[in-house]
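ugh ok fine here u go
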Amino acid sequence: MLKVNIINHSHHQLPAYETIASAGMDLRANLDESVTLMPMERRLIPTGLFISLPVGYEAQVRPRSGLAIKKGITVLNSPGTIDADYRGEVGVILINLSQEPFVINDGERIAQMVVASHEQVEWNAVEELDTTERGAGGFGHTGK
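structure:
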């Protein structure tokens, strides 16, 4: 189990895994008053959380599937990345893709956060790449 330092300036519990096999933890809105997100409006929603990840890890902020399918609310820069050297408040950029206003209340579960390891690369400049069956075929190139 990876130990991560966290400061909780919200008035809510720390993010937690809902089941033993969950990859993500729900993030909650930390608001003094409700926020209404109008259709096509985007807003940075505070969580009151500050984290210190070890180098080689990132926190990915992702949409909650229930909010996305039922209300048209999603994370605009999905997944949002929180780098290991960031020490500011974790915020969630939400957008309302529905045709109805959406009210965000204090404590509402607005996104999920997945902590994952990652690699950094060192580029190796070459004149040509190895060949593959797909080659340079792009989006929809197989016709399926």
